Amino acid sequence: MHPSCHLTVLILCQVEAGEPWTELSVEKRLDEYRGRQDKYRGRSFNPIVGFGPNGAVIHYKASEATNARINASSLLLIDSGGQYLDGSTDVTRTMHYGEPTDFMRETYTRVLMGVIDLGKVVFKKGATDSRLDILARRHLYEVGLDYLHGTGHGIGVFLQIHEGQNK
Ligand SMILES: *[C@@H]1O[C@H](CO)[C@@H](O)[C@H](O)[C@H]1NC(C)=O
């Protein structure tokens, strides 16, 4: 299982039990878990762990001043990755440890629909990401929503993790 899977289950149990998880403690635990893996050589980028409104801040970096305590009433975004001898990773997960609102369910589902459409598309070699981007956004556009960010990027191997595509 991927280390972030263990961690999200652990947080779920402990948030329910009232344990004081915060954005910074999640970050620290991610490093610890990845650090136990054989081929791990370090972070592939600074993790983004954002709870509630912080999760909507693009490229958010938790600090002592902003560090939110995680509870069961909003969404937790974890975007992190590692450099491994056999590859680099960039994994994003969105969790809710209570009862998501209808709006959270709808937007999460519409984003997921876009991801599935992108995963299924057959495209010609040389198609640029800007040609495929609409597939990811269309289910959001249908209800007047959007996201203020690119849809994807290259990962590379032991590079900067946000690589341009090969043209
Ligand atoms: C949960 O966290 C959010 C965001 O930090 C905060 O606004 C809210 O008051 C918290 N709710 C509870 C029940 O602690």
From TrEMBL:
Q: Which UniProt keywords apply?
A: Aminopeptidase, Hydrolase, Protease, Signal
What residue range is the signal peptide? 1-17
Which Gene3D superfamilies does the protein's record reference?
Answer: Creatinase/methionine aminopeptidase superfamily (3.90.230.10)
**Keyword Signal set for record:** yes
Q: Which GO terms describe its molecular function?
A: aminopeptidase activity
- Kindly give the InterPro entries that the UniProt entry links to this protein: Creatinase/aminopeptidase-like (IPR036005), Pept_M24 (IPR000994), X-Pro_aminopeptidase_P (IPR050422)
Using the record's annotation, list all stretches that form the Peptidase M24 domain. Answer: 12-164
Q: Would I find Heme among this entry's keywords?
A: no
> What's a Pfam family this protein contains?
Peptidase_M24
Q: What is this protein called?
A: Putative Xaa-Pro aminopeptidase P
- The gene that this protein is the product of is ampp_0
